Amino acid sequence: MKKTIITVVGKDTVGIIARVCTYLADNQINILDISQTIVQGYFNMMMIVDTNLTQKDFGVIVKDLEQLGENIGVIIKCQKEEIFNQMHRI
Known about the structure:
The protein has 3 helices and 4 strands; from the N terminus they run βαββαβα. It is an alpha+beta fold. β2 (30-39) and β3 (42-50) form a beta hairpin.
């Protein structure tokens, strides 16, 4: 399994989750875990996804999600699990 961490942050608007999840489903990326909160109008979501079945290269997914974020007014970041874990090691 190729796990990837996706974070989405920005002003809350209608359809953020729908747009991100539609992109993932269209590219055979399975959501393993998801957490989202809205605090005083700011949206924050973290997802753990499995990219094992997608045909797209990781770099393309990163760019696509960044572009999607720009289109919907949020910041979307994508990191491979092993990089994320190394960055957050104590």
